[in-house]
Amino acid sequence: MNLNLKKVSLTILIAVNMLVAAAPSFADDKIVALTNSCGACHGENGMATNNDWPSLAGQKPGYLLAQLNAFKSGSRQNILMENQLTNLSDKELTAIAKHYSSLPFVKAEASAINKVGENVRSACLSCHGKNGKTVNDTWPNLAGQNKGYIFQQLKDYSSKKRESMLMNVIANELNEQQMRDVAEYFEQIGSVQ
Ligand code: HEC
Ligand code: HEC
Q1: Among candidates 130, 138, 161, 14, which has minimal Cα distance to 65?
Q2: Is 121 in the same domain as 89?
Q3: How close is the Cα of 89 to the center of ligand 2, in Å?
Q4: Is ligand 2 within 6 A of the CB of residue 150?
Q5: Structure confidence at residue 67 as a pLDDT band (50, 70, 90)
Q6: pLDDT tops 90 at residue 8
């Protein structure tokens, strides 16, 4: 590389660094304002108050962002989530996903594990992880998620109300009792993460 080229690339590098540094970061008060309305259902700390609704704390950031985009575009639909995200920009959605992902997931371990559910989950291990925690940033953790919510998602994947190439096939192979059992199992194995 000749000297001039080196100089040019250095200048570009510095310019890029400055751009990154100048990108607006989300101050705490801005995130509080952005997520203020979400707390009513998803809890102030991202732990849902109703068993049929999902906790968001500690969930994978890439997965959360994909779901936010899906609700915003209408490819995933739910009456309670309707219009929640209409006015939010891509940057704001990214900040929200990061925020919830960074919150600690806190739940006590259950005493007795649903053994039937434990057997069913052998079909889930490869993607959702041995302990219900996945290594893939764009796939969801299931450990500790509310069983009412998990059950409903399995029903929705099975009927294709909620679309996912992978989950539509997998859920379709479960009967309703297996869905309930595996949902309970995943809720129960949620301990302090
Ligand atoms: C009135 C209640 C309500 C409010 C307010 C609400 N949500 Fe939700 N949210 C839900 C319900 C119910 C679901 C589950 C939808 C389904 O079954 O598909 C959900 C699902 C989600 C999911 C998908 C979680 C997953 O594991 O796939 C995300 C992400 C989410 N909401 C983010 C938000 C954000 C961010 C806000 C605020 C800007 C918000 N929600 C406001 C009720 C609500
Ligand atoms: C081949 C990989 C794979 C396997 C095996 C798999 N899943 Fe999934 N699962 C995914 C992916 C990817 C998603 C996200 C789909 C989407 O975008 O809606 C998902 C989403 C889910 C969700 C929604 C979570 C939420 O927060 O909304 C539930 C519940 C779920 N899976 C349960 C199961 C269960 C139970 C099994 C085993 C019976 C299983 N999955 C097996 C890949 C897999």
Answers
A1: 138
A2: no
A3: 27
A4: yes
A5: very high
A6: no
Point out the domain boundary residue: 66, 89, 104. Answer: 104
> What is the predicted pLDDT for the residue at 107?
72
Ligand 2 contacts CB of residue 166 (under 6 A):
yes
Using most ligand atoms within 8 A of CB, pick from 55, 127, 152 the residue to mutate for ligand 2.
Answer: 127
Task: Give the range of the structural domain holding residue 113, as residue numbers without chain letter.
Answer: 106-193
Is the residue at 34 inside a domain? no
Q: Which ligand is nearest to the CA of 83?
A: 1
Q: How many whole angstroms separate alpha carbon 148 and alpha carbon 52?
A: 4
Going from the Cα of 140 to the center of ligand 2, the distance in angstroms, rounded, reads: 7
Using CA atoms, how far residue 46 sits from 26, 86, 154, in Å, is: 18, 20, 22
pLDDT at 22: 43
